[in-house]
Structures are given as C-alpha cells and as structure tokens.
Design a protein that fits this description.
It is built from five helices and three strands; from the N terminus they run αβααβαβα. It has a single domain (about 25-140), classed as Thiolase/Chalcone synthase (Peroxisomal Thiolase, Chain A, domain 1). The radius of gyration is 17 Å and the shape is globular. It has helices at about 25-40, 60, 65-75, 90-105, 125-135, and strands spanning about 50-55, 80-85, 110-115. The chain has a three-stranded parallel β-sheet with strand order 2-1-3, sandwiched between helices. By secondary structure, it is α/β, with parallel strands linked by helices.
Length: about 140
C-alpha cells in the first residue's frame, strides 16, 4: 500500500522589514506566528499543528536560544514538537525541506515554520561582522 500525501502551503506572513526595529527577537517571532495563523483562509486550530520549526541565520544576533519551545508556547499547543534550524543563508530552505520530509512521511499532519532574524542589535558593524566571520569557511576569512 502506497501512502499518498499532498503537501502545500496554506498560510504565510511577513513583518515589515526595518532597520533598528524596536521589537525584540521574541516579539518578532510572536507576531509572525499570530500573523501566519490569521492568514489561513479557512482558519486553523493551533492544536492541529504538530510540528514547529524555527529558522534563523544565527542566534548570535537576536540573543535568543531555545526558540523552538518558545514558538510552541506562543502557538499555544504544548503537545507540538519543535526545534530550531540554524543554517546560515539556507536556514529557511532547510526548514521547508525538513517540514516537507516530516509531512510526506506522515510524521506530522501540519507544520509551522517561523523564520526570524534581528541583526540590528549589535553595538557596531565590527561586532556584526564578527558573528558573520564565525559562520564563514576558514578559507573565506581574511586575517
């Protein structure tokens, strides 16, 4: 017997992009979750979301660790499974790929992907560049 599972995107949301936002990283995540839930045409009950994947370039910018469990709390579904994907510039693509695999395999019926980044909290450009350098391949770093 072959299990045929259709996978699709039923909602999306994006905050206004702005430099030096007054919002904290956790505020950005909370607003994103609320926004995407409200974007679903026929509505969705948070209890129907079984998987939450939070993606960002680096937790070094927003100073927010354990963002998966925090997203579950904001979702209001403590039984959802959650984790964070930190994969530099392909974090969102990686999160989509992982959600697709979970859904296609029947390991979850619905998934929520939350991508966020707050890069404007660094005290200087050199501090921001230090985080970027830590993500670079050793051959890309100019001493």
């Amino acid at each position: 017997m072959v299990l045929r599972v259709s996978v699709g995107i039923i909602g999306a949301y994006s905050l206004k992009y702005e430099s030096r936002s007054q919002l904290e990283a956790w505020d950005i995540m909370r607003e994103s979750i609320k926004g995407v839930l409200n974007s679903v045409d026929k509505g969705i009950d948070p209890r129907d979301i079984e998987l939450v994947i939070v993606s960002n370039f680096s937790d070094g910018y927003g100073n927010l660790l354990h963002s998966g469990p925090l997203a579950v709390d904001y979702l209001g579904n403590p039984s959802a499974k959650a984790f964070r994907v930190e994969n530099a510039c392909v974090s969102s693509s990686t999160a989509l790929y992982i959600a697709y695999i979970f859904l296609k395999a029947g390991l979850a019926r619905n998934a929520l992907i939350v991508g966020f980044e707050k890069m404007s909290t660094q005290p200087s450009g050199s501090a921001a560049n230090e985080i970027l350098a830590k993500a670079a391949h050793p051959l890309e770093i100019v001493a």
